[in-house]
Design a protein that fits this description.
Shape: elongated
Structural class: alpha+beta
Strand content: 5-15%
Oligomer: single chain
Helix content: 25-40%
Number of strands: 4
Distance between the termini: 25 Å
Strand order of the largest sheet: 1-2
Length: 121
């Protein structure tokens, strides 16, 4: 699984690293646990600072205060969870080699199951 989080907020690299780590919360909410050898990759980048292409002297950048990052962390977890669920529910039934088949998830059943096991929503 590869998760890429993007924001136009003015974050510095260490804040992007912290943001990327919150994608694991979304993975866990969707039922993943990050098994050994899973190869999950979580990346985050921010475009909130506009750096000059040519510069001969130091320039200013902006960053959000660390104590303002909680809403971004929540959004990272929610976006990751929703993306995983969207990918699972967008799949169609298919039949493959040697008669193997994979059935699409019935959306109405999935919604019922999710409500039962995630009552906090």
């Amino acid at each position: 699984m590869i998760v890429i989080l993007a924001t136009d907020a003015p974050l510095i690299p260490t804040q992007c690293t912290r943001l990327a780590k919150r994608a694991t919360v979304g993975l866990a909410r969707a039922g993943g646990v990050g098994h050994n050898g899973s190869g999950d990759i979580f990346l985050a980048f921010a475009t909130g600072n506009h750096l000059p292409l040519q510069h001969n002297k130091p320039f200013d950048i902006q960053m959000l205060p660390h104590d303002h990052l909680d809403p971004f962390f929540e959004a990272a977890a929610e976006a990751t969870e929703e993306s995983i669920l969207n990918a699972l529910t967008a799949a169609e039934s298919m039949h493959g080699w040697q008669g193997h088949s994979a059935q699409a998830l019935p959306l109405d059943e999935l919604q019922s199951i999710m409500r039962r096991y995630q009552p906090y929503r």
